[in-house]
Amino acid sequence: MSSFLARYPHRVFLVAAFLAGAANVLAFAPLSIWPLQLLTLSALFSLLLHSGSIKQGMQYTWLYCFAWLFFGVIWLTVTMFRYGDMPVWLSVLCVALFAAALACLPAAMMGLALRLKTKFSVAAFCLVWLPLFWSLAEWLRGWIFTGFPWLVSGYAHNVSPLAGFAPILGVYGLTWLSAMFAGAATLITLGQRRYAALALGMLLLGSALTLVQWTKPQGLPLKVRLLQGNIDQQIKFEQEHLRDSLDYYYHAILQQPADLIVTPESALPLPQHYLPADFLPGLQQFANSTHSALALGMFSSDGPDLFANSMIGITPGTPGSYRYDKHHLVPFGEFIPPGFAWFYHYMHIPMGDLERGPLLAAPFAVKDQQVLPNICYEDVFGEEIAARIATAYRQEQPVPTILLNMTNLSWFGDSWAMPQHVQITQMRTIETGRPMLRSTNTGVTTLVNAQGEVVQQLTPFTRGELLVQVQGYQGVTPYILCGNLLWLGLMSLLAAFSLWQRSSLRRVH
Fold first, then answer.
1. Is the per-residue pLDDT at 402 higher than 90?
2. What is the rounded CA–CA span in Å between residue 255 and residue 297?
3. Which of 245, 301, 383, 487 is least crowded, fewest Cβ atoms below 10 Å from its Cβ?
4. What is the pLDDT of residue 124?
């Protein structure tokens, strides 16, 4: 392998790293060619193993991650040029700068890993240290500067055999395991074929784990209506169209009863006190007379210039009984980081600086089920959803049995953002052993069951509703109880063993 690499100039492998990163995008939804994630990462690891210097290895990593993130989230430009009046070239440049900044983190972490290359055996380097620093880089991306864990490597495996590990180790644990697989594949290319057993064993064990039922059905299924208004984001907040939106959702809710009727995120684009005087009372009367519970996506206000992105729950006989405020806000879309007020004013984003709700909010009771809401981007943070369920168990509070996501992806048009978000939803259901309902403005409105399978979905960019029956589940997965601690613990033990083994060998010699 080293002699092969020596035949070509460094710039050839820079291009190879870039192309591998671009190909990695295809491993995620909507194509979901998950073996590509393993193949492209093993290609990167091979380049790192044979890189002539730490600097070269960091360059390979940066190019791989830049291409992966840039092409994976290029749909972010839609918001900028279609709704923010930004020139297309400038919006592409902004996404490129964003991807470039995010790629610096894994490049730096792989630089740290490369410092250990000569201190450990090739096997230890590929199976312990490269996976450790790679998965730590992805984990850090999930929380630094409030986090952007979109397209984390583990998401590519919601349909692969490795998905069986998700209820135990979560998406970052899958990221670590996929990196170990890539390390084993790298060793196989070096002629060390005994590591094929390790790679195959991971896939077989993962497949076996998919047969384990960590949770079980709870109570009676709910009949749910998920509304999809398909309202263009460009006119959603315009005064002359507000009444049309309110009228549509008001009359759509009243069309027929259900155990639960859900609107998308901010479907009612006004705080409660700006709504027509008879709007909420009319919905409450409908809830009372039909025994229907309503989950309304709207804004709440607790004072002048104090707005929250909320889900308001209406239940029969109890007006104003439930409110959930979005906790994990999107930078530049829902809150303005210090020093970036200029960007907010340039983009003209309505309701772009919101108040943050509490993390550990109670679920919404619907008959004998407990529905745990999250709004839009929040379901990307699986550890937060798991923590909410675990806290309910530990404090002997009502335990969530069904997850609910209310979202509005119309900001990103007809792009891969929609199937990528559904893939994230699928991972959350596998991690927690609970189904998730998704009500969206333009798509994809869907029901994902507790096994991570899409049961039903509504055609995107159509106005209508999805009528589903959803079964709640009780019980806990290891990931709910331990969050990321299991993955971090196992990885730390493996690293400690590698250090001990190296120390033992040094004493022998």
1. yes
2. 18
3. 301
4. 97
Average pLDDT over every residue of 174-195: 97
- DSSP label of 331: B
**Is the peptide bond prior to 444 cis by the omega test (within 30 degrees of 0)?**
yes
24: which residues sit within 8 A by CB, 6+ positions away?
A: 36, 37, 40, 41, 64, 67, 68
> What's the first-to-final CA gap in the chain, in angstroms?
29
Whether the Cβ atoms of residue 40 and residue 63 lie closer than 8 Å to each other: no
Q: Please state, for a pLDDT cut of 70, what percent of the chain lies above it.
A: 91
Is pLDDT at 503 greater than 90 in this prediction? no
With a cut of 80, say whether residue 78 has pLDDT above it: yes
At 414, the amino acid letter reads D
Collapsing DSSP states into helix, strand and coil, what is residue 401?
coil
pLDDT of residue 131: 98
Residue 26 structure tokens:
């295809």
Which residue, chain included where needed, has tokens 């999107």? 330
Residue tagged 């859900």 (tokens): 262
Average pLDDT over residues 133-154: 94
321 pLDDT more than 70 = yes
Q: 306 has which bridge partners? A: 303
Q: What is the pTM of this model?
A: 0.93
Question: Which residue has 């009863």 as its token pair?
Answer: 257
Enter the tokens of residue 232: 């263009």
* Positions marked catalytic: 265, 326, 376
Contact 164, 209 (CB under 8 A): yes
Domains and CATH numbers, the chain: 2-212+484-508 (no CATH), 216-476 (3.60.110.10)
Angle at 389 between CA 205 and CA 465, to 5 degrees: 90
Q: Where are the beta strands (DSSP E) in 408-501?
A: 436-440, 446-448, 454-457, 464-474
> Residue 204 is encoded by which pair of tokens?
């077989």
At 374, is the secondary structure helix, strand, or coil? strand
Q: Report the pLDDT averaged over residues 430-459.
A: 97
Mean pLDDT, range 455-474, rounded to an integer: 97
Distance between CA atoms of residues 245 and 322, nearest Å: 23
Find, among 280, 480, 289, the residue nearest to 372 by Cα: 480
Q: How confident is the model at residue 157 (pLDDT cuts 50, 70, 90)?
A: very high
Nearest to 448 by CA among 416, 464, 479, 426: 426
Residues 155, 429 contacting (CB under 8 angstroms) = no
Give the contacts of 284 (CB within 8 A, at least 6 positions apart). Answer: 314, 319
